[in-house]
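Internal QA ticket QA-208
Title: Verify multi-chain structure generation after dependency bump
Assignee: T.L.

Test input:
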Amino acid sequence: MQRVTPPLSGERFTVVYRFSGNREEAQAKAWDACIEQTVEFPFDLLPEGDIPEKIIGQIESMNPANEDQSSFIARISFAVENAGHDLVQLLNVIFGNTSIKPGVRVEEFDLPDSMINRFRGPRFGREGLRTLLSAPERPLLCTALKPMGLSVQDLADQAYQFALGGIDIIKDDHGLADQVFSPFEERVQRCADAVARANQQTGYHSFYMPSLGLRADQLLEKAHFAKQNGAGGLLVPPGLVGFDSMRMLADDDGLNLPVMLHPAFVGSYVTAPANGFSHYALFGQVARLAGADATIYPNWGGRFSFSKQECISIVAGSQDLMGHLKTIFPTPGGGMTFDRLPEMLEVYGKNVIFLMGGGLHRIANTLVESSRTIREMVENIR
Amino acid sequence: MQRVTPPLSGERFTVVYRFSGNREEAQAKAWDACIEQTVEFPFDLLPEGDIPEKIIGQIESMNPANEDQSSFIARISFAVENAGHDLVQLLNVIFGNTSIKPGVRVEEFDLPDSMINRFRGPRFGREGLRTLLSAPERPLLCTALKPMGLSVQDLADQAYQFALGGIDIIKDDHGLADQVFSPFEERVQRCADAVARANQQTGYHSFYMPSLGLRADQLLEKAHFAKQNGAGGLLVPPGLVGFDSMRMLADDDGLNLPVMLHPAFVGSYVTAPANGFSHYALFGQVARLAGADATIYPNWGGRFSFSKQECISIVAGSQDLMGHLKTIFPTPGGGMTFDRLPEMLEVYGKNVIFLMGGGLHRIANTLVESSRTIREMVENIR
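Actual output:
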């Protein structure tokens, strides 16, 4: 009888998977995940004791996901010790090797407080962001500096005009990196300055948020450069830099800045309906564990294909109880236009950040006017 | 007429995408990618000049991918300047926002030397690994320490036996992280010592390769700890830690260690046939840009679903000309058994690393004997 050392606590966390196939196929896939996500070893060769009894996953329940019984929802529990102490290994246990198998989707997961307490989670969350922006109730506004190819001067001019018009968060388009047209350091300095200048005129608290789609060995250094030069937040694409790099930036007390998740390069986790993650789990639960204060995703009816239902599930993921983790802002974007706002308000209510990029260039004759129009609109919502 | 500053070089790189749909739909998707992957801005609002003429993607060709014309292959070129200076932004231009759109797959990409020269790529490659292991011709052997839950002592004993039997690369199972059963530092020291002890007896050059599925803020520090304590290589899961973190580790002159890619958490990029990346691009081209010397993937006919054809395409991606980048080792695993080796040899030839985990526990009565059996087998191939 082989026991693991030190003894296991007995606490377990649960992952809810959807397995494609009839009951028999789904059952086989679920059992496979119990092994694949833990010991990756022939069951009959495991040493007796804790490893087959506690370390491998356990199927807690299994029910049809739909009437035609073409897929099944299984709750599988794992020993908390399997997930180590960090987000990387937690994601590895949730979906590491299983990501390579077709017909498995992570619908949601449920962590005991002992695990969640290891994560700081969103530093600001909804309330913290509202305080920073002196906007206790209304929807917040975000836009992106673009298009790629503009000079730093042009981007800083845009930033100034957006801020003058009252856009709260003026972020780099995620395609702005460290390119010859607008090198990172110069862009950060000029854009942050431009927003600060506008704030002095308006009395608003807008801030500039650079995009951190940057080299792994420069990420922390450049984030600190941004902080020191007036950036008010960080746009982070975890698909490109890693979810735990986002967590690292959010956790950094020297930075102490809000973090916004950008979905570049994570689409493959959600585009195929039978594989990957649910929108709820990825843009809600994982985003919060990784410290995002706001989670960007493409709104329904824009340039992308998320359904209204999927967007609503992201809202749920952004606010459902997860231990002490703060609620965060759903930030729908991706081809939004002014005339969509009433419909979006109806669905999202006021706890939302409206991200309007190109669409903001069409509302009025100047960016300042366009920004003012949308700012007035959200201020007058009751 | 707005020109970008400094002037664009005129050099372009090409991404070959497969777009699902009939010709009209595919054409619309291709045009959409030209915009989405660059300016993300309404075309009619772009300032005249370089941005619409050179910065946005250009469709160079478009042809049916198959006889029924249900998908199309488009070559889209982008200005080299769009991709900045690093892997993060290159991946962003190749597939950032487009990852969120269904029915788009990256088949391959083609970079001019001016871009490839910015990447060191695999530090060792096939030849370098062969030199390290004093194995100029034969297939190399790799196994994994497992199952999760064993103590450091048990894992180190396994490592010793594998090395004594002549397995070249003894890696952590990717599920071993920094858990209570086998804390990272202690495991690395003991396993590296065990392999060194065996090498003294055998005269072989086997090495231990810890898994670096670790926190972003500890990755580099723990990699150096591993190096200082006798690790001979690094197992890196780029899906969990980011492709550029792998590149950072491979580029580190203080580490100077071979890097092996583990596919945990990248599966979603390849499991849906109409989305994500081709196996060729992800496990071949991207792996090499990110500095992998060996690329692990599940062999056909094991626990996973890759086809023989897809495995063969990974071999092509591991060795096709990519400027100065070294060729790397395809490392098929995922449920391999001794009796599969002849069939695998026929397909892979000698330029392969056979990764056998659980299967190695079944060949003979002891791990030493099992390892010897497979070592003799590969040494006697002509």
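Spot checks passed. DSSP finds 14 helices and 13 strands in chain A.
Status: verified.
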